[in-house]
Amino acid sequence: MERKKFSWGIVLGLALLGFSRSVGWALNKGLSFPLLSSYTQSAFVKGTILALEGIIGLLIPPLLGYYSDTLKSKHGRRRPFIMIGGFLAGIAALMIYTAYALGIPLAGFALTLAFFYFSMHLYTAQFRALMPDTIESGERGKASGVITLLEWAGNLFLFGLAGFLIAKAVAETGEAEGIKALAQTPYLKIPFIITAVFLIGAALFVYFIVKEPKAPEIEEDESLIGYLKSIVENRDFLKFYAAQTLWWMSFEFIAIFLYGILAFILHGAATEENVKAVTSLGLYLMALFNITVLLGALPGGIIYDKLGRRLSIILGGIIFALPQLWGWFISTQTEIVIALGLAGIGWGILMAASYPVIGDLLTHYEREAFTGRYYGFFEATRSLPVLLAGTIGGAIVDLAGENYRILFPIGALLVLLAMPMIWRMKNLEPGEKQ
């Protein structure tokens, strides 16, 4: 495959795309749960609706990533998907606000969320594949650190913006419940409009500015079934994908049910009133988590390139898991802040260190022409946990008598189970042989 010299322009272009996508996903994480609480109090129903993202992400990225590998277009293999997906995702963000503002029934609101998830996943694999397509092995940790930094800065931006708007709405309306106050003002539409602008703008920027290298000639292409079979047969890919599924499921337990966790710990129950009462706090805590993720992201990329793949991944995983073990015992807002802050540092290291792994494995096995399909599967193993965490996590909470705190130790256990899989990968470090 044709390679270009390391270019900070390409890295920053991809980082901008990552920033915009994170703004979109943060909009979903920050506002969908409290908006759904206006329709139902059931953790299982809300978790199942939010898990639609997992179902769509499980199917679309592997399929479209596979077909993008073989796309022959003067516009490139990845950029057409990025352009179409970014545009549709921006439109979908506006539709979510419109659906809620018009008061459509729960089923209609859920379908609007599903369209947003579909649009975002139209170009998930292509976004991920562009980094190893354009950055040489040995430089990918550095690139991953910057891209991860900007991705989580997008989360921070949206959570901070939403928290500010809620505080402003509360001050103007006198309504104690944050999301209810926001819904009574024109401010509710602002995060959705800004998200749409970023999604469409970043897709346009990458389409017109970031140039893909010439597509390689694929002499012996895999069939779709053959590609899926090859993942199962290659133990390194299988171990990594399985490990990633576990640590993302741990993350999604917290991300999906954070408002319920806060309401339970601070108010004793996750009722609609208590969930709405902690909405502003939840947004600020998400912002805090993202700040500490940023602190871990750049060192995570450097550790990946300089000190070793296993060390960086396992270090990040352990730092992420330990505060969750403590989570079973916390009872105050201060303890929650400390636990999420420490977990964020570990998550930042883990994210920066895990992103380049697939690209480096493809380099090792001389399969670099297939980055789209393998990063498609990479994204599927990030989406499957949304499905599992939303449904299983909601069921666990309901079975535990609405005790949301139970998600902390279960999440920590999942991360710790993933670490031996990483340790036993045979070709994770440069120069290792089977």
From TrEMBL:
<feature type="transmembrane region" description="Helical">
    <location>
        <begin position="80"/>
        <end position="100"/>
    </location>
</feature>
<feature type="transmembrane region" description="Helical">
    <location>
        <begin position="406"/>
        <end position="423"/>
    </location>
</feature>
<feature type="transmembrane region" description="Helical">
    <location>
        <begin position="146"/>
        <end position="167"/>
    </location>
</feature>
<dbReference type="InterPro" id="IPR011701">
    <property type="entry name" value="MFS"/>
</dbReference>
<feature type="transmembrane region" description="Helical">
    <location>
        <begin position="187"/>
        <end position="210"/>
    </location>
</feature>
<feature type="domain" description="Major facilitator superfamily (MFS) profile">
    <location>
        <begin position="244"/>
        <end position="434"/>
    </location>
</feature>
<keyword id="KW-1133">Transmembrane helix</keyword>
<dbReference type="InterPro" id="IPR036259">
    <property type="entry name" value="MFS_trans_sf"/>
</dbReference>
<feature type="transmembrane region" description="Helical">
    <location>
        <begin position="245"/>
        <end position="269"/>
    </location>
</feature>
<dbReference type="GO" id="GO:0022857">
    <property type="term" value="F:transmembrane transporter activity"/>
</dbReference>
<protein>
    <submittedName>
        <fullName>Predicted permease</fullName>
    </submittedName>
</protein>
<feature type="transmembrane region" description="Helical">
    <location>
        <begin position="281"/>
        <end position="304"/>
    </location>
</feature>
<feature type="transmembrane region" description="Helical">
    <location>
        <begin position="106"/>
        <end position="125"/>
    </location>
</feature>
<feature type="transmembrane region" description="Helical">
    <location>
        <begin position="48"/>
        <end position="68"/>
    </location>
</feature>
<keyword id="KW-0812">Transmembrane</keyword>
<feature type="domain" description="Major facilitator superfamily (MFS) profile">
    <location>
        <begin position="1"/>
        <end position="214"/>
    </location>
</feature>
<keyword id="KW-0472">Membrane</keyword>
<dbReference type="InterPro" id="IPR020846">
    <property type="entry name" value="MFS_dom"/>
</dbReference>
<dbReference type="Pfam" id="PF07690">
    <property type="entry name" value="MFS_1"/>
</dbReference>
<feature type="transmembrane region" description="Helical">
    <location>
        <begin position="311"/>
        <end position="330"/>
    </location>
</feature>
<feature type="transmembrane region" description="Helical">
    <location>
        <begin position="383"/>
        <end position="400"/>
    </location>
</feature>
<feature type="transmembrane region" description="Helical">
    <location>
        <begin position="336"/>
        <end position="362"/>
    </location>
</feature>
